[in-house]
């Protein structure tokens, strides 16, 4: 008992040192517990991948070839270590023939795609910038019709991984997010995604232009204000200039009806007698060829607009949703907001830039042209990458690429329709 009393007396007399020691031990315990959980997640993912690697393949089959485009500079230079610890062991245990190509500078991924050989799958390991470079380089190829059919996987290793929310279950644990995305490659579930052609690049998410986008780029400058930095950035922006409207001329085409999906199962081949009969019938009765029809002229609708922010986005947020038409969504935020409403709505949009404000005008279109009154009026955000604003034409390439998707997330999106 005397020893216990002595311990409590010591803690009371040295309460500052005791408090510091408790904080250090608590933080260290929490850190060690997190490392243990990460190792457990890696071990479970490797066990699941090994099961795929133990599956037998036929004598005429070959190992699947996977080409990985890895950006080591992503996530502030941590991407290479994240890939080697969390994704590479899963791919190797699954029995794949993995070819890793690392980029050395910005824009190199586009050039590498011009030289890429035929592969069974393409894996993009990086962030939004790496993803956009690879997609742009892929769709610029002369034989892009062939290479665009290759299934693509996205392993989120960057600081910004916006597309990952459409393909995989969201998780605050980085290790779980990466291992889940890698395991989805082995399971083979894919979803078609739309692509926006915005010369000279291609995008999977969309284009932003306006006041909310400009303020979002300056939020990090007010880091010293802590949780108030987002509101402070919008407030200071109002003091510098108000209203912050953008004037442009918008032309757009109506949505295109979506053709029916092709059957996934191949119908059985007719018997021999029926095939002989069909050939003889085609030989004696040559089918009449209809004269080619001239394509109908495109009917563009023109509109002069004034808006706080213009957004052109795809429907890739829920790629499994059934739609009757192929279209992209043009959103025009109203220019009648007060300064208080601008700060409130801007705080919400900082969390989800593609979210529209209340009473925003939304237009479904298959193509759009933005004619700016003068070049260099601000900047565009195209898939979270900045480009100088200029007059552009945006074309929708419906269901152009197929991406690997988590089966659980795909089922979740199907139930949310």
Automatic annotation (TrEMBL):
Where does it mainly reside?
mitochondrion
Cellular location(s): Mitochondrion inner membrane; Mitochondrion intermembrane space
EC top class, in one word?
transferase
**Keywords for the protein's UniProt record, in alphabetical order:** ATP-binding, Kinase, Lipid metabolism, Membrane, Mitochondrion, Mitochondrion inner membrane, Nucleotide-binding, Transferase
**Catalytic activity reported:** 1,2-di-(9Z-octadecenoyl)-sn-glycerol + ATP = 1,2-di-(9Z-octadecenoyl)-sn-glycero-3-phosphate + ADP + H(+); 1-hexadecanoyl-sn-glycerol + ATP = 1-hexadecanoyl-sn-glycero-3-phosphate + ADP + H(+); 2-(5Z,8Z,11Z,14Z-eicosatetraenoyl)-glycerol + ATP = 2-(5Z,8Z,11Z,14Z-eicosatetraenoyl)-sn-glycero-3-phosphate + ADP + H(+); a 1-acyl-sn-glycerol + ATP = a 1-acyl-sn-glycero-3-phosphate + ADP + H(+)
Pathway membership: Lipid metabolism; glycerolipid metabolism
Answer yes or no on keyword Kinase.
yes
For this protein, the Enzyme Commission number is: 2.7.1.107, 2.7.1.138, 2.7.1.94
- List, for all copies, the residue spans of the domain called DAGKc: 61-201
The record's comment on protein family reads: Belongs to the AGK family.
Protein name as it appears in the record: Acylglycerol kinase, mitochondrial
């Amino acid at each position: 008992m005397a020893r216990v009393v002595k311990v409590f007396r010591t803690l009371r007399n040295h309460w500052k040192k005791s408090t510091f020691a408790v904080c250090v031990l608590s933080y260290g315990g929490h850190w060690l517990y997190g490392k243990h959980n990460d190792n457990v997640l890696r071990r479970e993912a490797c066990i699941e991948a090994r099961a795929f690697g133990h599956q037998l393949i036929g004598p005429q089959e070959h190992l699947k070839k996977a080409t990985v485009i890895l950006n080591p500079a992503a996530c502030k230079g941590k991407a290479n270590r994240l890939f080697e610890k969390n994704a590479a062991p899963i791919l190797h245990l699954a029995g794949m023939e993995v070819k890793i190509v690392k980029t050395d500078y910005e824009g190199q991924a586009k050039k590498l795609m011009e030289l890429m050989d035929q592969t069974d799958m393409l894996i993009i390991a990086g962030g939004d910038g790496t993803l956009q470079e690879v997609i742009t380089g892929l769709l610029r190829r002369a034989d892009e019709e062939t290479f665009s059919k290759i299934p693509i996987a996205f392993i989120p290793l960057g600081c910004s991984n916006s597309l990952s929310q459409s393909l995989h279950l969201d998780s605050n644990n980085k290790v779980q997010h990466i291992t889940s995305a890698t395991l989805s490659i082995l399971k083979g579930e894919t979803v078609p995604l739309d692509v926006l052609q915005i010369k000279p690049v291609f995008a999977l998410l969309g284009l932003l232009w306006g006041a909310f986008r400009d303020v979002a780029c300056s939020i990090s400058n007010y880091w010293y204000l802590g949780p108030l930095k987002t509101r402070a950035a919008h407030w200071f922006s109002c003091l510098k200039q108000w209203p912050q409207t953008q004037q442009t001329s918008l032309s757009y085409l109506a949505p295109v009806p979506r053709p029916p999906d092709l059957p996934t199962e191949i119908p059985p081949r007719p018997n021999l007698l029926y095939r002989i009969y069909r050939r003889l019938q085609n030989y004696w009765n040559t089918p009449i060829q209809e004269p080619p029809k001239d394509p109908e002229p495109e009917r563009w609708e023109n509109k002069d607009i004034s808006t706080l922010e213009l957004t052109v986005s795809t429907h890739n947020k829920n790629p499994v949703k059934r739609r009757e038409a192929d279209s992209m969504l043009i959103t025009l935020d109203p220019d009648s907001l007060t300064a208080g409403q601008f700060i409130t709505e801007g705080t919400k949009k900082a969390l989800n830039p593609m979210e529209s404000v209340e009473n925003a005008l939304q237009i479904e279109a298959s193509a759009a042209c933005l004619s700016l009154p003068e070049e260099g009026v601000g900047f565009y955000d195209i898939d979270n990458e900045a480009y100088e604003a200029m007059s552009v034409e945006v074309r929708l390439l419906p269901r152009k690429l197929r991406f690997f998707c988590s089966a659980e997330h795909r089922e979740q999106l199907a139930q949310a329709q």
